[in-house]
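Q: Here's a chain of 191 amino acids. Please give me its 3D structure as tokens.
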Amino acid sequence: MFHHFVGRLVEKSPAHAVVECGGVGYYFHISLTTYGQLPAGPQVTLLAHAVYREDAQLLFGFMTAAERDVFLLLLGVSGVGANTARMILSALQPAEAIQAIASGNSGLLQKIKGIGAKTAQRIVIDLRDKVGKVDASVSLGEGGSARGEAIQALTVLGFARPAVEKAVASILAKDPEATVETVVKQALAQL
């Protein structure tokens, strides 16, 4: 029903944002990913998705189309509601979630609060073939984390994901500001 809202950012917190459009304030539930991308200025454009339940009508806001697309895919999985999908997108960037699902990494999903083994496996099984259709032009190179980009680069090179994650984590623990190139070079030396 709603596609996007353009207006003045009145209030923001890690869980919600209020956008005033035409004198009406709209309360959006947002992920930490969106919260981190909200502009400093007063003008904001939020993509929207409305969720209608028996007891509530909720608006969810997103800064990118990729995040909204992943959110909608997650809603299609049995047992995954809007708040669980928001939790996943708060823990992972959209491109990281796509990568985890496409590679069958249910272990990464299980680390997210509220996601058990069965739900993580169901997400991977249900969405593995569908995530390729999400516009990944928001790939990890654009707006993704150095951690995510490095992991993706090393797994593409054929290294096992658990070993890659361990190496990247140890490198970033020593130098959290390391660039992707630095992380990849150091990880290649360790692997």
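Q: Can you summarize the key feature?
A: Strands lie at 4-12, 16-21, 24-29, 43-52, 57-62.
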